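Entry 14. Structure prediction run on the chain below.
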Amino acid sequence: MGNSLQDQLLGLGVANKKQVNAAKKNKRIATKKKHKQGVDETLEYKALLERKRLDKIEQDRLLNQQKNEEAEKKAILAQINQLIDMNQVDIKGEEPYQFVNSGKIQKMYVSEMAQIQLANGQLVLVEFHDEVKAVGAKVADKIKQRDESKILVHNENTVPEDDDPYADFQIPDDLMW
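Output returned:
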């Protein structure tokens, strides 16, 4: 019973030596092929894991970039709020001053001196926590560098030119409504 099937077939004369060797060769090739395919599957699995790892790294990088941008926006907003809070000018008075804010005309009462300074561009109206505050032109330039949408009214300084033939005739920049 210790004889293999190949030995038994050779003994009976059903198969010859050449057929036995061809069968062994085919079996060996099939075993190698099976083993090689198993290696390919592990390589494919490793490649899949590597792709997943790289996708995760890219996703984390994008998430970190988004968090950094949000933190930067918060920092800029904090800087703007600090600039406005530290440099705001009290302009309350009895003269009406009208300006456009978000497509709507708004009216506020300012002093006569503040009205002149607003018209000349020395004072600028800015948005601060859903309120309107006035700051100096230099501070407004710093705010404008950080976020232009916070500036509500910034009139350009109107200095007459030397060769202007109408220099003696002052034209008001702000109309009283």
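The longest strand covers residues 92-101.
Filed with the rest of this week's runs.
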